[in-house]
Amino acid sequence: MGWLLAKIFISLYLIIFVVAVFEDQVGKFDWRQQFVGEVRFALFDINSQASKKLLVATEKNIFASLNSRTGDLFWRHVDKTGPEGHIDMLLLYGQDALVVVGNGRILRSWETTIGGLNWETVLDTGSFQSAAFIGVQDQVKYVAVLKKSTISLHYISNGHQKWVENLPESDTVQYQIVYSGGSGQVLLLGVVPNSHIVMVEYKIEDGEIMKQKSVAAPWLTSLQSSCVVVGSGVLLCVDPMTQSMYTLLLQSEEQPKMSQILLQTLGLEVASGFQPVLISTQPHPTRPPLPEFFLQLGPDHHILLQFKDGLISPLRDFNPSHLVTFATTGEKTVAAVMTPKNDTACSINLYTADTGRRLLDTTIIYYMDPNGGRPTRLYVHAFLKKDDSVGYRVLVQNEDLVLSFLQQPGRVVWTREEALADVVTMEMVDLPLTGTQAELEGEFGKKADGLLAMVLKRLSSQLIVLQAWLGHLWKLFYDARKPRSQVKNDVTIETLSRDEFNLQKMMVMVTASGKLFGIDSKSGTILWKQYLENVKPNSVFKLMVQRTTAHFPHPPQCTLLIKDKDTGLGSLNVFNPIFGKKSHISVPALPRPVLQSLLLPLMDQDYAKVLLLVDDQYKVTAFPSTKNVLQQLQETASSIFFYLVDSSQGRLSGFHLRKDLSTELIWEVVIPTEMQKIVGVKGKRANEHVHSQGRVMGDRSVLYKYLNPNLLAVVTESTDSHQERSFVGIFLIDGVTGRIVHEAVQRKARGPVHFVHSENWVVYVYWNTKSRRNEFSVLELFEGMELYNSTVFSSLDRPHPPQVLQQSYIFPSPISTLEATLTEKGITSRHLLVGLPSGAILSLPKMFLDPRRPEVASEQSREENLIPYSPEIPIRTEWFINYNQTVSRVKGIYTAPSGLESTCLVVAYGLDIYQTRVYPSKQFDVLKDDYDYVLISSVLLGLFFATMISKRLAEVKLLNRAWR
Amino acid sequence: MAVARHLSFVVVILTTIIGFCTEIVNCNNGRRGDIVESDLAGMSVPIEHSFEVDDVPRFRLRGTVQVKPGRENVVSFSQMSLSDEDRSLLKDVAAVDGLYRVRVPRLSLQADRETDRQPDGHLSAFVRACSLVESHLSDVITLHTDVSGYLIGVSIVTVPGACQGAEVEDEVDLEVFNTTISIMPPVNAPSPETALYIERMEQEMDKKGKPQEQKSFFAKYWMYIVPLVLFLMMSGAQDQSGGGAGGGATSGGGR
Questions:
Q1: What ipTM was predicted for this assembly?
Q2: Where is this chain's protein located in or outside the cell (chain B) (predicted)?
Q3: CA A675, CA B108: separation in Å to the nearest integer?
């Protein structure tokens, strides 16, 4: 009995789990890459050479630990986005890392080995200025946090506050530097711009003010940008106006005075228009900073100087030099200097800090990527070798956010492409045919040149195909002998070719920093990258595929429109999406701001789709603008319409193209901005296919869908945010005629609204302010039981308004992004892909969002497979397509059809990138892995022979009967 | 069909053939319909139209929509019939596949609002002039308002909407508009219907209705348990009595 129960239990348990991913399928069809973003602070664990820890804090508000041997993440903490999670400061002491977060809001201590939180304290309000360790007699016990009007001292061990003091005259004095030379005092330095410097000394024990002095400095505006502390308590400032340096002894007993040292006397000169920068180092918080420091005189000019006995003496001049930094190991401090070697390489050398002598055998050659940017930051991990000489590794960050970790003599240990932490838009492009296939295809494209030549060419290409096949067989045979794990599938640009079912594609990703990537969708390998210089930080990108890989001798072509958000001026960038090469096609100059861009289905003689750009004077520029294109445009001008949206005025307007490529306004809809503002406009995807024109009802009649390819879904939010009066508006507008097909208002609702517009439906998500929950709403449009014109759809000839059905549901989670699956022919049922803030991606069957779900199930609705209405949409854990591979801060989901009708390729991007496949209707067109070929073929063969034998027997029998 | 699938959302390839121009009449005896002045308490919205061969809009008054106060959906539309000049012009425009445009001023349909806001700009829409001619001037005009009753858009369609090049007899068919006019305020989108659902669930529960009170385990199976217990007790008692007897015997023996 008990055994039976156990059996039942186990089988039930298995049934529950079979719908999820099998363990052996993990990572087979999907991959995830995790990123951290642009590095602000990077610290190495300097305690031992063997340590692999590299701590980074980034602009994306992430604090992470990287393995410095491989570049992989040990752990990563993702804080809130925006200024609330901004990391102000990162300090490392022993195993503990102290982080100040959110403009001095929170002080945290992390255990760096496993990334656990030691403690966290909330600090008083006030904008953060500086933080430093306070050492007393070779021990570091406290950390001081300087804010605009207060200073507080905290224990490192538990975060408790030792004392907090208000700063004297904090409304006029800007306190910016906190300094402790390890001699048991906390010294604050503040400045009244263009007047004087203020020094305040606090007692560590109770925060009592010991001394307070002020020194006249009428030339000084900011301490942070032009002053550092060097040696044992010497404030050193540089003034670009008088080309001089000032020194100030902080701990002298008599009234301190700034002494001026002209740079000229040292034989130095600041490059014109350059703000000189001082770089000093304090190797250990309990000891004063070193007397040596760097002075940057120009963008590529640094000099190592020493302050000794009130005098400054130059140790070594580095001209040219890109980047300099100090590094300390044990008792030795070295200076690392990156100097340009030639156009493509830099060399990094170590110099002793105290003399400026170059250390032998410390050169690292850093080769720069010709398609990348210049190095911007240099972090050095120095260590003592067994023979007591100094060895080191460097971390270099480039303009295009590449992190490279190098070791002597120039081996790149790893690189990370941190630009991918901020993907803005992407497209998937089919891979080209193999070289041999292309060779065969190419024959048809070329002009015929004689019979014999053609025959020879055909023979030679067949020979190439044979050769390739033999090579493939040999490889198979060769690989079969090796264990499976050793067979490497290296993907390179050369071996790139389309697979049988077109499941492998090229992902073209555009990042906010202006770097483009070509990534193999199967493995996630970066195949090409290209850095576009001079891209403004807040640009808007639009990526379009002008020519696919289907037109063989012509290379595929992608066009990226980069638009400056402030001026609206745009520029075009044309490239080959497979190889990442910039195209030599001349692009039209765009002197005026671009309002709209549209990719027409027209093609020029080279099969490139025509791109129309509309500027702010409603003039149209065509690209490519060959004669052929212009002629085609003239012919079809009467059927080319476009729309513009001006959300600041709530104006939607439609235009019509004239034969002379001028435009005319034909319709106008204005949604008053006093009541509501337009937050989103979405059309349908151009590559979307709808297989069935209607839905078969329970009584065998057909309800036809309203499939208007020109329909726009416009979503507005009310300006009144009061919970009773706020609303979300949904307008369905025909983009050609400007006809408002449907207008609905969701009362007591507010954004952020996410919506998807596809086929004959619109799904949107909003926040219900009254019930305080997230809700889904679905709109479906039907023509009715009869089609008005079943052969073609024209917006100009569709007089009857569609029937609109709508239903709403409760969704038990907030959402980050929404997208619908897309398949080759549109036969497969649709799923909605919902990115949740938890990092999960939910594949929600569209069947649950169907306004025809009946209140009470009837015979007919059961026939139609409609689920009876229930107000809540369930979240089932087996619907999470990314099982435990969470995607942090998911920002967008991209879907692309594959060659298999059942399969849709999905890429989710945000901080991480996750690629997988989904099968909304299961894999109906694929045989299972464990399909029994042997059984089937043996049965077939058996039947075949049985028929043969029985036929023979029947013949014999007939013959015998005939003789009788 | 394959072409239609590839259309991007801003492009429609017209498949219809432009209608033929039949004849051009140029008469000057303008005949105008009377504008019925209805009660002034309601709002009135002037509708203007324009149809020009050179396609530069020159709007003229076509008619006025009267909205009954309070009830926005009750409207009356008074308009002029086309003059002979206009008729021939319309046919000319139809012949060159020009556009017939209409526009309304941006204003609020709620009377109290009209005073404090002057109309700024217009809302416009169009149909192909040929379809208007071929439909014998039968059109449907819809005025869309936002939640506060402010006009946001106008739409015009003709029934039927196609241009098939059908010949139109001049005088009779192109004189009077056969217009259906309506004002469309936004529809209230439904919220999740929890109350109904709960009600239905309760009904279902009731229907199944107290099928049997949850009897306790003992109440259900007492007829099996009691004999079993009795049997066990009996056998146990036998054992005990046997043991007791034995014990008694030994003790008796000891005595």
A1: 0.77
A2: Endoplasmic reticulum membrane
A3: 12
